[in-house]
Design brief:
The structure holds two protein chains of two kinds. Chain A contains eight helices and no strands. Chain A is an all-alpha fold. Chain A is flat. By secondary structure, chain B is an alpha+beta fold. Chain B is elongated, with a radius of gyration of 33 Å. The chains are: A mainly alpha, B alpha+beta.
Chain lengths: ~180, ~475
């Protein structure tokens, strides 16, 4: 895919979009909470990848995780800009703004973790959380032992909890430029 | 009702009865006593999965009365034999009751954080958390992690966003290998159908669909499923794939000779059963459509005139791609209707290309109807390439325009000066007619001039349809 993008193959760009647009748009929407802003970040992310296909280093991880990182970074960058404007107008405390940005990027990381975790863990979490099944019912629905259902629920949440511990992507004040753009 | 003073045995009973252990439980799991007096150090894990927004800005969700929505079913049986004593019976480690092993308590932390274990287990975990800092730390982390879960947003990506994003990209860096203009409608329509298919649940692939077309004299139909419709698209797109040297998706099942769309579809259905019921064809269909677009891009304009056999007729590759875009759009509409999803029509420029294809096919369709005795003889014969009697076809709306259809022979040229009849239709109506979804006599069309010419063109348009 990277080679095809580098060659300037428009069909590869279409395939890239088909693979990742819903991921990019939903992460951007999670951070920015606004359809138009998410559309804009989607355009920016794909525009960046198309213009810089060599920026992806397969040694650093999957294309998917790179796309997700770019998206979070750009969405947080846009949120920071929006918040800076709002803060100037309403005089919001910088700490308050920073907390909001931190929360938004944690939520986006969490979404990415959920979509990326092994399907058995995601399915167990969905049954317990969305469908309010207890772990015995979850086990029955999934056709696994109660032991295994407990293990999946715990492991899924352990993975999810790492969203809280990762650092904010670079791009904030004092961290140099406003992201890769 | 949720004040700590009223805390009793984790209090699930207001929303749903206490859960009990299933038959496969390790011994002793259900024997933990409920400690109403032992207030947990860590409060209630979470509320229902209502849509309170993902960001933990607001107050942490309270345990609340049952909300509308899914509720846990009540266990059919009463308290299991040997259940712990009634609420109010304090339980402490060392009071003689069997404690759950540490391993089991730890394994319950995820279920506890999700409020997905029984009241007894909840109480046992919470009693344990007051004593075990290690578990208490994990319990807090997992409970916070639950706050990051949220119901799926069901945000449908705007199907028009794709073309805006791609255009933006190509404006920043032009493609060295562009998608040919004649393949663009196919690219757009397959992407829209793909997005629809991705949103479909397993059961929706079984949704019944009635495929309808016009056999030249009357409307006909055939029952299949949403999955069967996709099989039809896969089989017919395979005609184009084979012309470009790509593998035939029918493989050994491909009918011998120059089988057309209908024969190929029936051949595929025979291998899958008339009404396939699973999403299994989604990936092969999408891979084939991507491969078609990619191959068309590489071979570029050089092959746009390559003849693709469509059973008895042949279409140049560029028209075959338009035909497949048209088929993809219409059948995506069939699937969308069957599963009650919205599905938007093509962009104006693409719709114009599709109408143009149909308009260009009309003189041949008129001639075939004459040969079959379904239309009257030609009124006037002119030399090939000369203007002949003409119907002025006016398509209204976005993507519309004016076409001049030669009435008496495919070899004649339609000409505004030789117009003997005028037919005006909305673009969507014209496409539905060309799909055979509308009976010619019932098409909402405005006309004047020779009535027979108008009738012949309406019937010829509907006759463009097929399985």
């Amino acid at each position: 895919m990277q080679q095809r993008l580098a060659r300037g193959e428009a069909a590869a760009l279409g395939e890239l979009y088909d693979r990742f647009a819903s991921l990019v748009h939903s992460l951007a929407h999670r951070v920015l909470g606004d359809e138009d802003a998410a559309d804009r970040v989607t355009r920016e992310v794909f525009g960046y990848i198309w213009e810089n296909p060599d920026a992806y280093d397969p040694k650093q991880g999957s294309l998917r995780s790179w796309v997700a990182t770019l998206t979070q970074r750009q969405a947080v960058h846009r949120l920071r800009q929006n918040e800076a404007v709002l803060a100037r107008d309403d005089g919001a405390a910088p700490a308050e703004v920073e907390r909001k940005i931190q929360d938004a990027s944690t939520a986006a990381r969490a979404d990415y973790i959920v979509t990326s975790m092994p399907a058995p863990l995601r399915d167990a979490l969905e049954l317990a959380y969305i469908h309010r099944r207890d772990y015995c019912q979850t086990a029955a629905d999934l056709g696994v032992t109660a032991d295994e259902a407990r293990r999946r629920l715990r492991l899924g949440l352990q993975l999810l909890s790492t969203a809280h511990h990762q650092k904010l992507p670079p791009g904030g004040p004092g961290e140099g430029n406003g992201g890769p753009w | 009702m949720n004040s700590p003073e009223e805390w009793e045995g984790y209090g699930c009973e207001d929303a749903y009865p206490p859960r009990h252990d299933g038959p496969g439980e390790p011994p002793g799991t259900g024997a933990a006593p409920g400690p109403p007096a032992a207030r947990p150090r860590i409060p209630s894990p979470r509320a229902a999965a209502e849509d309170h927004g993902p960001l933990p800005d607001g107050p942490p969700p309270e345990r609340a009365a049952p909300k509308p929505g899914p509720t846990r079913p009540a266990p059919a049986e009463g308290p299991p034999p040997g259940a712990p004593a009634a609420p109010g019976d304090a339980a402490h480690p060392g009071d003689g009751r069997p404690e759950l092993p540490h391993r089991v308590l730890t394994s319950l932390l995820g279920a506890w954080a999700l409020a997905a274990c029984s009241a007894e287990e909840t109480a046992a975990v919470e009693a344990h958390l007051t004593d075990c800092a290690f578990c208490a730390d994990e319990a807090l982390r997992l409970r916070d992690a639950v706050g990051l879960l949220h119901p799926a947003d069901n945000l449908d990506l705007d199907p028009l966003l794709r073309s805006r994003v791609l255009e933006g990209c190509l404006g920043r860096r032009p493609a060295r290998i562009p998608v040919p203009e004649w393949a663009a409608p196919y690219d757009a329509e397959t992407a829209k159908l793909d997005a629809l298919l991705r949103d479909m649940g397993d059961a929706e692939w079984r949704a019944p669909v009635r495929l309808r077309w016009f056999d030249g004299e009357r409307p006909v139909h055939r029952e299949t499923t949403a999955a069967g419709v996709l099989g039809h698209l896969l089989a017919v797109d395979g005609l184009v794939a084979a012309s470009l040297g790509l593998p035939d998706p029918l493989g050994d099942a491909a009918p011998a000779g120059t089988a057309g769309p209908g024969d190929r579809t029936r051949a595929l259905w025979r291998t899958l059963g008339e009404a396939p019921r699973t999403p299994a064809l989604h990936r092969p269909w999408r891979e084939q459509s991507h491969a078609l677009i990619r191959t068309a891009s590489f071979t570029g304009g050089g092959v746009s005139d390559l003849a693709v056999p469509y059973g008895p007729v042949r279409l140049p590759l560029r028209d075959a791609f338009l035909d497949r875009a048209f088929g993809c759009w219409l059948h995506a509409g069939d699937i969308a209707d069957a599963v009650a999803y919205p599905h938007k029509g093509p962009a104006a420029g693409h719709l114009h290309s599709l109408v143009d294809l149909a308009a260009r096919l009309l003189p041949r369709a008129l001639a075939r109807r004459r040969q079959a005795g379904l239309a009257g003889p030609p009124r006037e014969l002119v030399a090939a390439g000369s203007p002949g009697r003409t119907l002025h076809l006016e398509i209204e709306g976005d993507g519309g325009g004016h076409w001049y259809i030669a009435l008496d022979s495919p070899a004649a040229v339609g000409s505004p000066e030789r117009t003997v009849a005028h037919l005006a239709l909305d673009g969507e109506e014209f496409c539905q007619l060309a799909a055979g979804h509308i009976v010619p006599d019932e098409a909402a069309a405005g006309s004047d001039g020779e009535r027979e010419a108008v009738r012949d063109v309406l019937y010829a348009t509907a006759s463009l349809s097929r399985l």
